[in-house]
Description:
Layout (H helix, E strand, L loop, with lengths): L8 E7 L6 H12 L4 E4 L1 H6 L1 H9 L3 E4 L12 H19 L5 E2 L8 H11 L2 E2 L4 E2 L2 H4 L2 H11 L5 E5 L3 H16 L3 E2 L2 H7 L34
Parallel strand pairs: 1-2, 1-7, 1-8, 2-3, 4-5, 6-7
Helix pairs in contact: 1-8, 3-4, 7-8
The structure holds nickel (II) ion.
Amino acid sequence: SQCNVEGPYIAMTFDDGPHKEQTPRLLDMLKQRKLKATFFVCGNCVAEYPQIAKRIVEEGHEIASHSWSHPNLIPMSESAVRDQLERTHAIVKQATGVEMKMFRPPYGNFTQRQKNWAFATYGYRTILWDVDTLDWQHRNPARTESIALAQTRPGSIVLQHDIHKTTVDAMPATLDGLVAKGFKFVTVSELVAMDKPVAPKPKATPSPDGGKAPGTPAPGEKSEPGQK
Ligand code: NI
């Protein structure tokens, strides 16, 4: 859900598309600023808009799987989950030529067993997020911007959705704000490649600040998977 990196690197991620109007608008904004992002696409949307999926890849962004039709996978049978992943993998390969390497389960809902199986079967790393702008819920561009700017830190994976006009409306200010704070945009695969294991914590000793290690997120600071 986040990486430990040296340097101000972050990954902006956009889920649930491609969308006929909003994804091309977003791609224009990213292109203008020479910024890279990662798109977790749904197979049924790629089937509808293969040219937009192709454009995502041609413009240097990463494309990754978000299932075929966005179900909650946890209660589903292995064959139904397989169907969701396989069809999406095939349509993205057909539309873009890319063999995807990553998967984000809808709502963040995935069992450990499903996660292991997706890695063993497809080589998919399961990717969540540490910054949730809740863009899908409040549909308020100013809030999307303020959450992204307040919560993003080096190594963050920021969750947003390119199917909502209000999210894309928030992007010029959000992207420019993050650039102004010195963040460098990379794809999720690039961020994961930079990930360094966190050094083992020294033995807990009481300290004046109550023992909270620097950089440890406060309870409730990190959004729980479970939202869209
Ligand atoms: Ni989603």
